[in-house]
Specification:
Low-confidence stretches: 4-9, 259-265
Order of helices and strands: HHHHHHHHHHHHHHHHHHEHEH
Shape: globular
Mean pLDDT: 83
Number of strands: 2
Distance between the termini: 79 Å
Strand order of the largest sheet: 1-2
Largest sheet: 2 strands, antiparallel
Length: 526
């Protein structure tokens, strides 16, 4: 009887436990369903804001992509690399936007909206500049063999980039309040996808649709002597789009109320924070690292694309090669960021640099091979050529994004949480500036290190360094001959500098990475 009682009690307990487990499981499933439902409601609530952010970031990428395609157009016009270096200054505003970011954040109209006070005027300005440029761009860029007006072209695109960088500051700030707290994580996704799509439209789509060869081969039944779009039409269309979208945003989108602070205090405190960060010894050492990290990569990454066009590869083909890179550029950072989670993100930077650095020599060989293939095939590049170039670019992208994600992760780790936004922006600015200044110098030095002369003429004073000298040589009945290409000289110089930099800095960055995080914080030194 006692044994039976015990068995009955145990069976009852097991039944109760099973019932309880089933009940808990059902409650968990119910909670999960409610969580999924809440996320769907939240996403539905923010979907129009996310859609607007995607549009704004896409518009931001249009002038950036177009500025990336202009050097290809100039290269086809035999513009010298000194002129290319001058035009490269258009990208500098995104590298130094921190200089006026506190002003954008602090000066505004409360009635109009803190972010719209800057977003609306600069987007109208971008649209207006693009429309005005559409009427004069052919004469500026050079018609019927005329030399391009590089100064005017650079000035106009520089102004576009100043406006685009200011728009970026305003949109980043607005996104934080536009999205709900639970959805603010979508900001980086909107930024990445929007800018990538915009750049793709301004670079790849423009180069393809502007090319008569591409349009005649893939889009037309009857060949024509021109592409589907030209630069004036492209500028005018997107200028109208900018103005239309800006008007709709101004009328229909309202900002949420924010807690405003005094303007003078906000501006002064922001600049004082920057100065306080720059006084930290670890930051000074890291700044030297960031500002010099891309010196050894400058020639390969800023000149190679132009040299491929010079070697005979059609510029629209280079644009189309970027097409398979778009999903890679979006997904690769996400994949790498999962791998490097941990306290030593710069380890992947140190491992990735030699591969990215070695690609400089590979690219130089590839440029030489391109000229050989172009002559052998009369400019009709075979399929295996494009397979090789895509593989090389993919390898380069893996190394590039490994270094990029490692740097961004390290910047996030060392930033003082008390002023995280300002700290991160400063470090990212120095990283961008390291690539910008070295790229401009690399372009400038190509002609300086090249040795060309005008052959077939009696006047030995004629040279071939600039487009004007090239035209003078042709007018005299001669032709320009390159005896030493400065690109290959730069590749060797950059390779040596890259090796020296790696030996100098790779142990230093390890020491900086091993520092206690408090050494990077302002309060630790006050």
């Amino acid at each position: 009887y006692e044994i039976g009682s015990v068995l009955f009690i145990m069976a009852t307990h097991r039944s109760l436990m099973t019932t309880t487990d089933q009940s808990d499981h059902k409650e968990k499933e119910k909670d999960d369903e409610m969580l999924v439902e809440d996320k769907k409601k939240l996403l539905a609530k923010d979907r129009w804001s996310i859609f607007l952010l995607l549009i704004l970031y896409t518009l931001q990428g249009i002038p950036i992509g177009l500025a990336g395609s202009i050097p290809m157009v100039l290269q086809a016009k035999k513009v010298g690399y000194r002129q290319q270096a001058v035009f490269s200054f258009v990208s500098w505003p995104f590298s130094v936007k921190l200089l006026w970011a506190p002003v954008v954040d602090a000066i505004y109209s409360r009635s109009f909206g803190r972010r719209k006070s800057w977003l609306i005027p600069v987007q109208y300005l971008i649209g207006g500049i693009m429309i005005v440029m559409s009427y004069y761009i052919n004469s500026i860029i050079g018609e019927e063999g005329d030399a391009p007006n590089i100064f005017v072209l650079t000035s106009l695109f520089f102004l576009l980039f100043v406006c685009a960088a200011t728009q970026d500051i305003a949109v980043d700030g607005w996104a934080i309040t536009m999205l709900s707290r639970e959805s603010v994580g979508h900001l980086s996704t909107c930024n990445s996808i929007g800018q990538t799509v915009g750049y793709f439209m301004g670079y790849t789509v423009f180069l393809a649709f502007e090319s008569k060869e591409f349009c005649n081969t893939y889009l037309r039944s009857e060949p024509q002597d021109y592409g589907i779009v030209d630069l004036p039409t492209f500028l005018f269309f997107w200028g109208v789009v900018f103005i239309t979208v800006t008007t709709l945003v101004m009328i229909f989108k309202r900002e949420k109320r924010e807690v405003y602070s005094e303007v003078k205090q906000t501006i002064s405190s922001a600049y004082m924070q920057l100065w306080s960060i720059l006084k930290l010894r670890p930051v000074q050492s890291y700044a030297i690292f960031l500002l010099t990290a891309k010196v050894g990569l400058a020639a390969a990454e800023n000149v190679t694309g132009l040299k491929l066009v010079e070697a005979g590869l059609p510029r629209e083909k280079i644009g189309l090669i970027a097409l398979p890179m778009v999903p890679v550029q979006i997904l690769l950072p996400l994949f790498i960021s999962r791998i490097i989670t941990g306290p030593r993100p710069m380890d992947i930077f140190i491992k990735g640099f030699p591969f990215r650095h070695a690609m400089g020599i590979v690219f130089a060989v590839f440029v030489w091979w391109t000229s050989v293939v172009s002559k052998e095939t009369d400019g009709e590049f075979p399929l295996y050529y494009y397979i090789v170039i895509i593989i090389l670019f993919l390898i380069h992208q893996v190394a590039t994004y490994s270094m990029f994600v490692g740097t961004m992760s390290f910047n996030a780790q060392i930033s003082d949480p008390a002023i995280g936004g300002t700290y991160m922006t400063l470090l990212n600015t120095m990283s961008n500036l390291g690539g910008t200044w070295s790229g401009t110098v690399a372009l400038w030095l190509v002609d300086v290190l090249s040795f060309k002369d005008c052959e077939g003429v009696s006047d030995l004073s004629l040279d071939c360094d600039t487009m004007a000298e090239l035209e003078a040589c042709k007018a005299a009945g001669g032709h320009c001959e390159t005896h030493l290409d400065g690109y290959y000289v730069e590749i060797i110089i950059c390779f040596i500098l890259g090796v020296a930099w790696y030996l100098w800095q790779h142990n230093r960055i390890k020491k900086l990475q091993n520092l206690d995080k408090s050494n990077w914080h302002i309060h630790h030194h006050t």
